[in-house]
Amino acid sequence: MTAKRSPGYKVLELDPTDADGWTIKGISQNKGSSLQNPGRNEEAIHCYNKAVELDPRAVAAWIGKAVAKDELSQWREAAHSYQRFLALAPAQQYGTRIGIARKRLRELGR
Description:
about 65% helix, 5 helices, Serine Threonine Protein Phosphatase 5, Tetratricopeptide repeat
């Protein structure tokens, strides 16, 4: 059986040693997660974990992982990822997300 693909569909060719590639794949897995695609957060977390394993300073992977863990009600792991994100994120690039992460940590009592 062959899978049907819409025009313009491209498969992500992923270099297994590229932290940015894993982050991008995680973001794509996280899009439209929650109620529509309940299993997608776990897939996204796998990608974010691989990204931070390859590059512990992968800022975008930390915030992506935090949000995915938060959506799964894994509060302790979400808080840890928010904290790692805050420790690494440059304010000029992630200003809005920094504010959101700080607010969420307060809500989680961290």
